[in-house]
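User: quick one, fold this
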Amino acid sequence: MDAIRKAAKIISKGGVVAIPTDTVYGLVADALNERSVKRIYELKRRPPDKPLVLFVKDLAEAQKFAEFSEDALKLALKFWPGPLTLIVKAKPYAPKTLVTPKGTIGLRIPNDSVVMALLDIAKMPLASTSANLSGMPPAKDSTEVRHQMPQQPDYVINGVAGGKPPSTVIDFSQEQPVILRKGPISIPQIENTIGKEVKLSKHLDLRIFFVCTGNIYRSKMAELILKDLLPKDLHGKVLVRSGGLHAPHGIPIPEDVRILLREIGIHAPDDSHAHQINEADIEWADIIYCMEQRHLEKLREYEGGHKAKLLNSHDIPDPLGHSLPFIRLVRDGICRILKNEIVPYIIRKFDE
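Assistant:
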């Protein structure tokens, strides 16, 4: 607590402090002190057109500085404190140095005891950004802060950050919400909370992962069919993979699958084989489509399982051990869902 009191005193005198947060190490200063905010930019070598984020102690304080739409409020109530930054319309009382030319401001309430104690003791909102040189990876502990930054902040609180990826950033200043940075709060979590679709910023990709039991029939067909159905302008923007919860890793896909894919003009690569889903796959994915309810329930046991959802409103049957006509019916059902629902959904993510 002595370190936090010292940090608060330094901030009150216009200093810049490096602190651990629930995600990465951050640089903070008095948001209402223009010179302090300017110094963060100098220390970080951050371009002046990239605004900082405002750390606040609670939602009531956030609403003093910004106007929250109904959707933004829903997310704040569900995920604050936490790794979610909301871009909303600034009110006249908002710190001018943190307001963009469009009149917006980014706000967050970190889920971190050090930050919350600092906000409580300092009794002022804090301008914040990650503690690293612009363009470099964010520092994860106090040692990295000291090693990475040629110009040091006035004080560094020793410790280790929470370790989560940088916060999800979503812009509510437009008619349809836009994700500006993907992070710990997933697309399905956001859309389930506000009850509507969100778009992705132009610079982002979208990572789709299909899951079934063995990854030799349903999820593998879904992966290859979706890749074929995607518009050419989304190649490279939409990345698709698949895996199985109980996959015989490395086993080639059956010849029946190759035959049925060739029927619809798709050539399965020679190295198409079963893959056992792992934690790295779950971390990689933005949305995970499951073939059955039991797959969904199993994935929900993992950190990141909130990314999972059902591909269809009812289970898609496992064709293992069935005849070619039955597998063809399963293929056609997956095709219809992908063509009529998933591809249009993906296209809307990138609509101008």
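User: anything notable?
Assistant: The mean pLDDT is 95.
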